[in-house]
Design goal:
This is Anhydro-N-acetylmuramic acid kinase. Belongs to the anhydro-N-acetylmuramic acid kinase family. The protein is α/β, with parallel strands linked by helices and about 375 residues long. The chain is globular, with a radius of gyration of 19 Å. It has 12 helices and 12 strands. The strands form 2 sheets. Strands 1, 2, 3, 4, 5, 6 and 12 form a 7-stranded mixed sheet that branches. A 5-stranded mixed sheet has the order 9-8-7-10-11, with helices on both faces. A hairpin with a 5-residue loop joins strand 1 and strand 2. Bound molecules: adenosine-5'-triphosphate and the ligand CC(=O)N[C@H]1[C@@H]2OC[C@@H](O2)[C@@H](O)[C@@H]1O[C@H](C)C(=O)O. The site of adenosine-5'-triphosphate has 21 residues, from loops.
Length: about 375
């Protein structure tokens, strides 16, 4: 039976996320009743070693088999190591690691065993957040939008704003905080915008042996190749009406579009493609938001931020300008969603994943 909203208890919830960039595990405490953000707590980060990252990378795009099992072990032990360092936790929201995402085909796969984690930590763990939404016809992603709605209210936004997450993949949430509930029609529109850092990271790794283009240093020396950009934007994904989502490697072939370019021009062009995907996505919003608040690692890239400022019709700033932590926002989101799952409340709705009705995903495992 669903509880009435007034009965929800404030909890200290620990959220954990291992994102598509495969850099490490982010974990953050959020005090919440699943409706409001009450306070932000401690946060921690556990990077993957180069060897661990290779094990995870080898499993990307796979659904079963030895690579997936090896990746699951790396993922599980890294989480156990990090999450055991937190104290006084009531509940854990455990996203795991997406290995494969094909919502209209084989489904979505996040590795990680929440039941085993609950035994070790001695508290309930909410996990497998995306499957129920996909099974009911939704995209299964993005799921942070319900948290974005709570954040928009927390920062006192009076009209529509947007949150833009620039991780491996980009995702945008348009929020109208004047609606009372995130599930109200018009309160949320969310979708993946296209590849963000993943192709640029892959280029940097293949050509220069670097994990990423730190501070956009390589792209800053180059120019965007317009022909490649046009070919990229001709992909049917950009014209598709949202909600819509992507797998990390859905645009892996775009690196071919820059194969003839020198390093600076190739990096600048891939950076430009990320910004252009966001600009194309913005066209789907009902009106330009008053602000775009950027979270995720891409906000540290000044070349990318500059390109966004030029191509969007509204101001673009890192979420830190309103006192939020852009490195931990996704981990906090899964803490927030865990609190909602425990109450039996929705974590996605037609505006966020395209699912036909409001869905409360997530499995609860108790110690
Ligand atoms: N100083 C910097 N300069 C340029 N790029 C940066 C910088 N810091 C981080 N990044 C980029 O941000 C990426 C990490 O972003 P983030 O941690 O948000 O990804 P993620 O959470 O794994 O991804 P997702 O949200 O898609 O699951 C790095 O791989 C890198 O490409
Ligand atoms: C299937 C999956 O794991 N998708 C991730 C990925 O990383 C960014 C983007 O693609 C977003 O759709 C989602 O993560 C965020 C945190 C979300 O669900 O809101």
């Amino acid at each position: 039976m669903k509880k009435a909203r007034g009965q929800a208890m404030p909890m200290r919830v620990l959220g954990a996320m291992s994102g598509t960039s495969l850099d490490g595990v982010d974990a953050a405490v959020l005090e919440t009743d699943g409706q409001q953000v009450l306070a932000f707590g401690e946060a921690g980060y556990r990077p993957y070693s180069a060897a661990e990252r290779e094990v995870l990378r080898a499993a990307l795009g796979k659904w079963t088999g030895p690579e997936v099992e090896a990746a699951a072990q790396v993922l599980q032990s890294a989480h156990m190591e990090l999450l055991q360092t937190f104290e006084r936790i009531d509940l854990v929201g455990f996203h795991g690691q997406t290995l494969a995402h094909d919502p209209r085909g084989r489904g979505t796969l996040q590795i990680g065993d929440g039941a085993a984690l609950a035994q070790v930590l001695g508290v309930p763990v909410v996990w497998d957040f995306r499957s129920a939404d996909v099974e009911l016809g939704g995209e299964g992603a993005p799921l942070a939008p319900f948290y974005h709605f709570a954040l928009a209210r927390h920062i006192g936004a009076q009209g529509p704003i947007a949150f833009l997450n620039l991780g491996g993949v980009g995702n945008l949430t348009y929020v109208d905080p004047r609606r009372p509930e995130p599930t109200d029609p018009g309160a949320l529109l969310a979708f993946d915008t296209g590849p963000a850092n993943a192709p640029l990271n892959d280029l940097m790794s293949a050509r220069l042996g670097q994990d990423f283009d730190k501070d956009g240093a390589v792209a800053a020396r180059g120019e965007v190749e317009q022909g490649a950009l046009e070919l990229f934007l001709a992909e049917p994904f950009f014209a598709r009406i949202p909600p819509k989502s992507l797998d990390r490697n859905d645009f892996a072939e775009m690196i071919e579009l820059v194969s003839e370019l020198d390093d600076p021009d190739a990096a600048a062009t891939l950076t430009g493609m990320c910004a252009a995907g966001v600009a194309a996505g913005m066209e789907h919003c009902p009106e330009p938001p008053a602000q775009v608040y950027v979270t995720g690692g891409g906000r540290h890239n000044p070349v990318l931020m500059q390109m966004l400022e030029v191509s969007l019709d509204c101001p673009v700033t890192p979420v830190e300008t309103v006192g939020l932590d852009g490195d931990m926002l996704e981990a906090q989101a899964f803490a927030f969603l865990a609190a909602r799952v425990l109450q039996g409340w929705a974590t996605s709705c037609p505006g966020t994943t395209g699912v036909s009705a409001n869905v409360g995903g997530g499995v609860v495992s108790r110690p």
